[in-house]
Amino acid sequence: MIRISVPEWWRQFCFAAEKFLADWHERPRRVTELASPSDKADPAKVRYGPLERVELTDEVSRTLFEEYAAHRLTDRGHEEIGWMLLGTRGERDALVLATLPAGDERSASSVHVRFNSHAQAVAARMVRQWNRQLVILGIVHTHPGSMRHPSDGDLSGDRVWIQQLRGREGIFAIGTADAPKHSPDGVMWQPTDTVQCLTELRLSWYTLRHGEYRYRPMDVTLTVGPDYARPLRPIWSVIETHAAEIDRLMRQQQNVRLEPLEGDGEAMLAVFVPLAEPESALRVLISDAQVRYQVIRGGEILEADMQESQVDRGVYLMLAELARHA
Questions:
Q1: Model confidence pLDDT, tens digit, residues 113-140
Q2: Which candidate among 12, 36, 169, 182 keeps its CA 20 to 30 Å from the CA of 138?
Q3: HEC profile of 299-326
């Protein structure tokens, strides 16, 4: 493996240039704008009616119940927790294919949960690399007590938020831990068409459409299928730590690709920035322990002798050094 070094004066110059670029391009964006194309961009020109049914894949359902149960065993188990739902939207139904967790860096208490929006924006970009049809469908969040429907506070925020979604309608579920004992442990059951239960955990499903002033209970069913975001769980801490930097980079550079990797016994996030030469790219390997920069040209890997934990800054330093030697 060949090693290349970056002079310190280039580091300082390129940092100043990158900071200027970041400030110039920075725009406040909601996760919805990054992950959910507008109806005008929908080639099918679907005429959306009121949602009548939501279908979950078995792996999505498993993720929700498993992570809800695990959350209750932590020292933050008294707080609310939540997930964003991604999937496909039909005329009167929706299929949930991915779950994005609120994240360890969420702001939460026993009465609210605010998701880590930077991490969810990056994660949404990743899963949409694997399935371009995914859009944001709605949100699941829990209530520590036995309030099985969204609160008035939920309603005021959701009535604004759903206007950005396909069909201007969102899917919502409230999790509570008050389900009666009914079936063997580990077997999900439905006391009604709009509720799912597993052990003591209950998910009550609703929909809210633009112009409506209250949520409607909605039928929920299961089908066999993946949770596209499940492979991101081992690197979620990495995504949260570097999400703002990666988000900026992906908005400033075209065709940036993100992939989860397993190497040397640790989970890593790989960021690929294409270079001008064919079959060439700048690769950033990010783990909880370190950030490494590599240049890939054909079958050759050149490792940069550089210590830079801020990913977008490191990428611009590398690009400037490569341009200087071009």
A1: 566 678 888 999 999 999 999 999 999 9
A2: 182
A3: CEEEEEECCCCCHHHHHHHHHHHHHHCC
